[in-house]
């Protein structure tokens, strides 16, 4: 069983950080690599031509391992979720009247590109609305999604867990239903990948887009994506030299190439060799693979189980375990609780959580302890 890993982070005593869904803290080991690489630019002769390729390749290999992609060539390096989603949306053609299915209050970076695409073709965005707060909500929301997938559905664009309250969507069932009607499944894994197991081999999404700075413990402004082979002839958002065939041959770069590097690499952003950020994310993913996502879930469960029972005892609603992760969940307060007073109490006690929609979003990780979670629970009354 995984033990508390706070010694690997720089979080200070007296700060209860239950807000990994907002932004993860950085591993100390990773910080050291970041500083080392930043300093390298002071000695540019220490950055070789080979470095333009080796770092980005390592990152793609690590990400492929983390999310169980058989061939790392199907991964790409992206700066943000919006970039990854725009890449996918730009490579999908629709017919008038087609539908793109999303869930209620989905994160905007996984909405706007779909709205634009729908407008372009006269298609529609269909929203699988969230059931009211109460027992059976997650189960019912999953059923709503399955029912909303019809012959008109061309794209199902959803997250694995909802960013605001952690409701978990059953991607195996949703994939199966989407396949029945020939719809693509495009997943935003930003609030799950790194903390929750995910297998591309098993789930078979058409694309998986992940921001790096939350559960992958990486830096801001770097993320990763997986694209199914069906996108391999697609149009990237930009045309960067390194993504073209034979770019390794620096002396012949102006022997312009119409072909790209294999697989999904054409979708990698310009300057994806990023000597500062790429090694940071690579090292973070290495650590995540070492811990194992099942172990991270078990650890988060072990430190929150008792506290969640206590919250339910106080009249709060927390989604059933089968329909949420243990790393991210919403705590919905009973109507007679004073939310502003609770917020003030949490702030005064240096307990960091987020307020998303009607939920207090709690998102622990391996650097937290049960005592810290109970400190949060103590403030809820
Ligand atoms: C589910 C989800 N997707 C994406 C993002 C970030 O999007 P972007 O990388 O486009 O800034 C967030 C940030 O909170 C998020 O919660």
Give the helix level as a range of percent: 25-40%
Strand order of the largest sheet: 2-8-7-6-5-3-4
Largest sheet: 7 strands, mixed
Total number of distinct structural domains: 2
List of distinct ligands in this structure: pyridoxal-5'-phosphate
Envelope shape:
globular
Features:
381 residues; Aspartate Aminotransferase, domain 2; three-stranded antiparallel beta sheet; 11 helices; 12 strands; binds pyridoxal-5'-phosphate
Describe the structure in your own words.
With 381 residues, the chain is α/β, with parallel strands linked by helices. The protein has 2 domains: 6-27 and 293-378, Aspartate Aminotransferase, domain 1, CATH 3.90.1150.10; 44-290, 3-Layer(aba) Sandwich (Aspartate Aminotransferase, domain 2). The chain has 11 helices and 12 strands. The strands form 3 sheets. Strands 2-8-7-6-5-3-4 form a 7-stranded mixed beta sheet, sandwiched between helices. A 3-stranded antiparallel beta sheet has the order 9-12-11, with no helix packed on it. A two-stranded parallel sheet has the order 1-10. Helix 1 packs antiparallel against helix 8, helix 2 packs parallel to helix 8 and helix 9 packs parallel to helix 11. The longest helix has 21 residues, at 293-313. The radius of gyration is 22 Å and the shape is globular. The chain starts with 15 loop residues before the first strand and ends with a helix. It binds pyridoxal-5'-phosphate (PLP). Pyridoxal-5'-phosphate binds next to helix 3.
